[in-house]
């Protein structure tokens, strides 16, 4: 039996037995949080449990490394939607120790792409069209620096509602211990000189 078939069979039973009822909630996060974290499998259940979150408490956005690289990318758009449309009012960037993004070597990943069937000419064409694989695939050297940088991108965003706390944390992927890196309540807002005139 294939994975998809197993999942669909289980799902049919899950729905027929109304097991979903214990998870019923609204689309609005009860604790008014939007969290950006890593897609690491160790965090799937650990992170919500370590934070005392139940289904419906927070909007959780995941990607490789909990990295925000662009103020106008998909992650930032999702944060803004959560804040403006889904009643969230705080943001948490949560990286983790032992993150695989600290070990990413772009050229090795490109080698794995070709090993798995992506033709060399496709890689060559993309590189010549302006895609910088090394920059695009690069992780980070320090999870702390990455969390601080991602929190700063969110905090400095021109469309962030004024006064929105943006916190940075690091979670241990085995114990769930949270380390505070940046307290969004204590960060002084920066205002443009022209705005104060």
UniProtKB/TrEMBL annotation:
Under Gene Ontology molecular function, one entry of this record is:
zinc ion binding
State the InterPro entries in the record: Carbonic_anhydrase, Carbonic_anhydrase_sf
How is the cofactor bound, as the UniProt entry phrases it?
Binds 1 zinc ion per subunit.
- Which superkingdom heads the taxonomic lineage of this protein's source? Bacteria
Reactions catalysed: hydrogencarbonate + H(+) = CO2 + H2O
- SMART domains cross-referenced by the UniProt entry: Pro_CA
Q: Which cofactor does it need?
A: Zn(2+)
User: Which keywords does this chain's UniProt record carry?
Assistant: Metal-binding, Zinc
Q: Which family does it belong to?
A: Belongs to the beta-class carbonic anhydrase family.
Name of protein? carbonic anhydrase
Q: Which organism is it from?
A: Cohnella faecalis
């Amino acid at each position: 039996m294939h994975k998809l078939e197993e999942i669909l069979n289980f799902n049919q039973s899950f729905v027929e037995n109304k097991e979903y009822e214990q998870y019923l909630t609204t689309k609005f996060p009860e604790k008014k949080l939007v969290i950006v974290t890593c897609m690491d499998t160790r965090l799937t259940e650990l992170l919500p449990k370590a934070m005392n979150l139940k289904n419906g408490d927070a909007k959780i956005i995941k990607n490789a490394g909990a990295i925000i690289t662009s103020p106008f990318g998909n992650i930032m758009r999702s944060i803004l939607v959560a804040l403006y449309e889904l009643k969230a009012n705080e943001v948490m960037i949560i990286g983790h120790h032992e993150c695989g993004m600290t070990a990413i070597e772009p050229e090795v990943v490109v080698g794995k792409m070709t090993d798995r069937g992506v033709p060399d000419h496709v890689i060559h064409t993309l590189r010549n069209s302006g895609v910088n694989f090394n920059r695009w695939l690069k992780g980070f050297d320090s999870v702390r620096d990455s969390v601080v940088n991602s929190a700063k991108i969110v905090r400095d965003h021109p469309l962030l509602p004024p006064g929105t706390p943006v916190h940075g944390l690091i979670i241990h992927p085995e114990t769930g211990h949270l380390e505070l890196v940046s307290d969004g309540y204590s960060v002084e807002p920066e205002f443009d000189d022209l705005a104060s005139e």
